Prior knowledge:
It contains 13 helices and eleven strands. It has 330 residues and is an alpha/beta fold. Strand 3 (44-48), helix 3 (63-76) and strand 4 (82-85) form a beta-alpha-beta unit. Its cofactor is Mg(2+).
Amino acid sequence: ERERLHRLRHKAAVTLDGARVELLANIELPGDAPAALASGAEGIGLFRSEFLFMNREGELPDEEEQYIAYRDAVLAMGGLPVTIRTVDIGSDKPLERMSGQELRHEHTLNPAMGLRAIRWSLAEPQMFEAQVRAIYRAASHGPVRLLIPMLTHANEISASMAVLRRVRDQLMREGVAHGAVEIGAMVEVPAAALSLPLFLRHFDFLSIGTNDLIQYTLAIDRADEAVAHLYDPWHPAVLRLIADTIAQGRLAGKDVCVCGEMAGDIDFTELLLGFGLRSFSMHPACIPAVKQRILRSEAHRLETYAREVLQSEDPRSVIRASVPGGVRAA
Ligand code: PEP
Ligand code: MG
C-alpha cells in the first residue's frame, strides 16, 4: 500500500471528471522542502515562518538570517511556488523570550485572543519590516507568495499593506535585488470569513486556516484536552464559513486554499471538492492519500453532496453519493 501511494507521486491530482486540483505542502523549516517534493507537492502552501523564531535562546533571526532561510526554501523547490506566512507568534507558539527584552503580555488570560500573529507583527514594526524585506528579497530566486495570519480588522489590512508598500519602495530605492510577491490573507477568524468582500478586494489569494477558524467559531481552545471532544470540524457553522469563503473566492476569480488540518484529512476531501476547493495544503505525509481520494472522485456529483451537507443539522451522517457504495463521512 505504501509503495502504491508512493507511485502516485508523479501523477497529477485530477478528478474522474477532469477537475484539476493543486496539492501543496505545509512546512516549518527550509529543511522540510525535500520531503515536500518527495511527497509530490506542487509547491509550499504554508511555510510557518514562526518556527525560525521559536526554541532559540539568543536573538531572534534578523533580516539576513531570514532571507537565507526563505531563499533556501525557494531554491529547494526549484521554481515551484513558496507561500511564506509572516510570523504567527503567540498563543500556542510562544517565544522563549524576546531579543534582549521580556516578552510583553506574557501572562494573559486568553493568549489565543491576545497579541499573536499579525497583531504581534504590527506591534513590533521593526521585526515585521525585517521579515517582509527578507521575503521580498527571497522572491528574486523564484515564485514567492506572502501570507498574513489572523487578519480580522480593516485597519490591520491597511496597516499591513502600508508596511509592504514601504518595504518594496525601500528595496527599490536601495537597489536591493527583490522580486514580485503575491499577497494573501489567512481566513481563520470568523470575522474575516464574514467580511469576504473586503478581503477579496485587497488580496491576491486567500488561505483558510481551519484549525483556528474552528477554535474561534466554536469558542473551543484547540490545545485544551478538557474540551477536545467539542472541537468539531463538522459543526454546520464551521462548514458554512468554509463553503462561503471558497465560493466567494471563486466568484471573485481569486485563489482560495485550505491549509489547516482539514485539508489533509481524507474524511473531508470529497466535501472540500464539493465546495469547489481546488487547492489543498497539508503535511507532506498526507498528500498521497488525499491525492488517491481525488483521483477516485467525481467533482460535479460532489457538489450535490456538499449542498446536502450544508443543509443538514447532522452533516456527518450525509451519504457521499459519489463514493462507490455510498460511504458515510465518518
Ligand atoms: C490554521 O489555523 O488552520 C493554520 C493553518 O495555522 P496554524 O495551525 O499554524 O495556526
Ligand atoms: Mg492558524
